[in-house]
Amino acid sequence: MLLIARDKTKPLEKLKWSKNGLKLLDKAVAAAPEDSLIRLLRGKAVFKLPEKHFRRTQTVIEDYTFLIDQEMRQEGTLEPEKYSQVVYDLGEAYHRIGRNKDAEMCWKRLENQTQDPEMQQLLSTNLQSLEGKPEIEDNKTESLSSMLVGAALAIGNAFSRWVEKEKKKEKAALRRKRRKNKKSRR
Asked: Directed axis angle between helix 80-96 and helix 117-130, to 10°?
């Protein structure tokens, strides 16, 4: 559903498919909270969603922290490349919500572990970008345009639900009318 959402062009359709896909992933994690594959799938899917519209970065943090803890307890649960990507993305998630100290810890940890020169360069650049920033930044202030987009999405969702209810009412009325006509013909 999330892949379908990615390819939709209409924002409300994108949102509808995304929310349905997220519900399924959340149910899968609730049913099997210790399953690292499900956590990895949900974490990767949610990581790509914009925080300002979905507010799911905390989910990424929970899933990736679980995966890293599991790898530390039982080495080999993740391939080295996937593990590095999870640690890097966890740092990005922390940075996204203004938890600079936590992002720095992730990236420094990875910088000490990786031998990949491209990754080391990227980490060095990211760490430099954090210099002089507070440990925690308040990223909760939204621009007027992002608030308007959020309001438009909420209104669009409410309107879509209303339209669906009206369609169901019309269908039910049409079925009743057909049944009534059948009875009157007998």
From this structure: 20
